[in-house]
Specification:
Layout lengths: L11 H4 L3 H11 L36 H7 L8 E2 L2 E2 L5 E3 L5 H4 E3 L2 E2 H6 L7 E2 L2 E2 L1 E2 L10 H13 L10 H21 L7 E4 L2 H13 L8 E5 L8 H10 L2 E5 L9 H6 L5 E7 L11 H10 L3 E5 L11 H4 L3 E5 L10 E5 L1 H6 L10 E4 L4 E3 L13 H17 L1 H19 L5 E3 L12 E3 L4 H10 L2 E2 L1 E3 L4 H6 L5 E3 L8 H11 L4
Parallel strand pairs: 8-20, 10-11, 10-12, 12-13, 13-14
Antiparallel strand pairs: 1-2, 3-4, 4-5, 6-7, 9-15, 14-15, 16-17, 18-19, 21-22
Helix pairs in contact: 2-15, 6-14, 7-14, 15-18
Length: 508
């Protein structure tokens, strides 16, 4: 076992605690595993990628210049407090004498146990074991979620609320229990502050149309950032067109981090709302949400945080953050598709007008008027995605059992390892090098199109995303129309990174 405390508080690395210790842990867990290994091309394996399946050695790197080596050794410091949650010492350890996945502990489970929870990870693609590095697009589902949804359909399936029969009661209990689970997971105060929607896109549209649009007049301003997904740009453009409001944009620096001094300058008496991502889906930049929220509130402005790319990777406490709205999708946090969440402070949701009309969201209807139901039902017209909500609850229970601080620490170590290995590949440029970064490894490879890289990776069973990732403004800011985007999650292993790097080296 590693006996030193990898997360002890120090004054290392720009005053951010724990960086030196974290680096020592990463080096001990992922040593330079290239000794004595060379590529051996053959007709069956033209790129020489066959490796002894028992071995954890990676493809031998080429000779580097001092500049390349220095960049490869660049480290990202780890904050001990983020997103309204203190990140305590996490239960991550490695034991010698066992396979790597068995020796890595994340909370109460080994990495091998976690990987075994996800059935699809045993799938074979083009004769190779699946390496799923497209988590930014969607995550895979653990057996616990699959089984919970199956159990719902086998034993609880009914529409919720109002039913007088037993299955209606069971279904309602399961649905509302999932709402309570979401509340606990993100640190909300009240369950009625949790609105179920189809996903992050619908969540942002709901807030834009139900809360922000009624307050807008010509010349009013909405602030977004250059890092945003199209789903956090287009809804604001639509309501700006309807109201005569204008959009202002927070710029970023050359690393991909927002320039907070410029953010402060954007506020005027006409500023009515701010909507900013928590983690960039292209760069992986973790934005300073505490400061973003505090600055907005100093100016008397409400703010929405898009948590689609953060909530599966970073501990979040919306109450500690004092977030006005926080939104995310279930399918990016190991839950089914078709379910998402709007968190909103109770007084803001009560002040907002309904977004959809129909059953469930009403208290009384005549042909002259309608009295709307209380929140959350006021925003949940019609039959919701009940089973998907139940599955979301199961996914959050799964993560809570492991512990989000432990998830964060593990993913951060793996991200460091991946960045170190990828920056050693000749011709590869990482896009987004902010000091605080999570999960995303967008890159360009000189001389090859993104599609060529993606197809060759797929031929070895490695799934990544290529294209503009629904975030064209930020890519164009860096001079690109697209990128190759591997993205990490809880179940990814050092072997996944090694497989990615081995194939990328075939382009060099």
């Amino acid at each position: 076992m590693i006996t030193t405390d990898p997360f002890a508080i120090t004054e290392e690395a720009l005053g951010i605690p724990g960086a030196a210790e974290l680096t020592a842990l990463a080096n001990s867990m992922f040593p330079d595993l290239t000794e004595g290994l060379t590529a051996s091309p053959s007709a069956e394996d033209p790129f020489g990628l066959t490796v002894d399946p028992v071995s954890t050695r990676s493809y031998a790197p080429s000779v580097q210049s001092k500049t390349e080596a220095a960049e490869a050794d660049r480290r990202i410091d780890v904050p001990t407090s983020l997103s309204g949650v203190d990140v305590p010492q996490s239960d991550i350890s490695s034991e010698k004498g066992t396979s790597r996945d068995d020796s890595i502990r994340i909370g109460g489970k080994t990495l091998a146990q976690i990987r075994n929870d996800f059935p699809i990870l045993s799938e074979r693609i083009n004769g190779n074991q699946l390496v799923w590095l497209d988590n930014g697009a969607t995550t895979q589902r653990p057996r616990q979620v699959i089984d919970r949804v199956s159990y719902y359909y086998e034993h609880e399936n009914s529409n919720v609320h109002r039913g007088a029969h037993t299955l209606a009661a069971r279904s309602t209990d399961a649905y509302e229990s999932a709402r309570d689970t979401v509340r606990n997971f993100i640190g909300a105060t009240l369950s009625e502050e949790i609105i179920f929607v189809r996903g992050t896109t619908e969540a942002i549209n709901l807030v834009a149309n139900a809360y922000v649009l009624p307050q807008l007049s010509p010349g009013d301003e909405i602030i977004v950032s250059i890092l945003e997904h199209h789903a956090n740009i287009v809804p604001w453009q639509l309501i700006a067109q309807q109201s005569g409001a204008v959009i202002k944009v927070i710029p970023c620096d050359e690393t991909g981090q927002l320039i907070m001094s410029e953010y402060e300058k954007l506020f005027t008496k006409q500023t009515k709302f701010v909507a900013v991502t928590h983690v960039s889906n292209v760069l992986g930049t973790v934005t300073p949400v505490e400061e973003l929220i505090a600055v907005a509130h100093r100016h008397g402005v409400r703010i929405l945080i898009d948590g689609a790319q953060s909530v599966a990777h970073i501990p979040v406490n919306v109450s500690a953050l004092d977030a006005d709205f926080f939104v995310f999708s279930g399918h990016k946090i190991f839950a089914p598709t078709g379910i998402g969440v709007v968190y909103g402070k109770r007084e803001l949701l009560e002040a907002a007008r309904p977004y959809h009309g129909g059953g469930n969201m009403i208290a009384d209807v005549t042909f002259e008027r309608t009295i709307y139901n209380d929140i959350p039902n006021k925003f949940e017209a019609g039959t919701g995605s009940i089973a998907d909500a139940v599955g979301l609850g199961a996914a959050l229970d799964y993560l809570s059992e492991i512990g989000m601080p432990c998830v964060y620490r593990w993913e951060h170590e793996l991200l460091q390892y991946a960045m170190k290995e990828m920056t050693r590949i000749p011709g590869l440029t990482l896009i987004g090098t902010a000091l605080n970064k999570a999960s995303v490894l967008s890159f360009k490879l000189d001389g090859y199109s993104d599609e060529e890289v993606g197809k060759r990776l797929d031929s070895y069973g490695i799934a990544v995303r290529t294209g503009h990732h629904c975030a064209q403004p930020v890519l164009r800011h860096f001079g690109y129309e697209g990128s190759v985007r591997p993205t990490l999650a809880l179940y990814n292993s050092p072997d996944d990174v090694d497989a990615l790097v081995r194939v990328l080296r075939t382009f060099a």
